[in-house]
Amino acid sequence: MLLQRLIGSPALNLLRSIYLQEKCLCQRFKTGKRLLSTKGQDSSNITEEDKFDLLGDDTGLMVEKTSKAMKAYLARAQKYNAFMAEKREEFATGKRHLANMMGVDHNTLTQKDIDEAIEYLFPSGLFVPAARPLMRPPEEVFPPKKDAEFDDFGRPFHTLFYTGKPNYYQLLHYANLIELLDRVAQHPYSYTIKDEILKYRIPFMSTSLSSFANSGVVQHDDQGREFVRFDNDVLRRKTARGSVTVYKNGTGKIKINGQDLLYFERMQSREQILFPLQFTGLLNKVDIEATVHGGGTSTQAGVIRLGISLALRHFVDENMTEKMRIAGLLTRDVRRKERKKFGQMKARRKYTWKKR
Fold this sequence. Notes:
The protein has helices at 2-8, 10-38, 48-55, 68-102, 111-121, 138-141, 166-185, 194-198, 207-210, 267-280, 297-312, 318-327, and strands spanning 219-220, 226-230, 236-237, 240-247, 254-256, 287-293.
């Protein structure tokens, strides 16, 4: 009865596991000594590193060895760290000597003071500033080395390193966070932690909207109508320039260089003009006056479309402004025609190759 209790007890299981681990360690150590003897090494002179390579970690359950690439990197890193430490010591010594020559305290000597002292003590007539004598911290003189992505035993620092694309899968984890936050928002009692979550929110504004954030001012004409005007300094596309004025509470009149929408013969250009009005729901509710010059019909339509979109931004709410930004209405088209290349027909097109 007592023997049956001992067999099933946790203490006996623990003793059994310790015995098996010790037996495994002894077998590995004997095997390692035999391997060393076959390589012509003295098995009595075994270093701590050799013991770790032979026995593994403290648990004795796995053998870990540092790769040759990692050992080479560690040797280079140690050499670089020793070199930088020596240069830092030389810089500190030179700084103290320079402070003694200038009669100041080396603790209060700034980099600007060092540059002025070097220029005073070693005047140089060299034209190139980089060739003149200088005294700067070694971190600014010698380029930094890339940090290792592994520890001393070859374990990667990044938890997603073995996926092959750690940055990509980290973004997937961010998408996971968004999904979890959506689930929290759908909870009936989510309002109780709303302030706690919004406390960590960081405001973000797209570059397309931030470039025009402070442009355009709502003004009033003689009749008291509100209008917004954008001039040539903002509205440009390739070689086309223009100015657009949008009046609120209008009847849908569009005047382009003294003509109506038929100024553009192509239907695509007309659709470009009307798209911001249809998108915001202000079609036939505002009046537009535009003057444009230079470029072709497509670029002129792009200039007027950008001016209308920027002006309508002042007549809609923030939600609609964000939708306009996502739709690309508030982004200036900075594309240009690519130049023709030498030895080619056009920018990309080559001449037909003939064998003979």
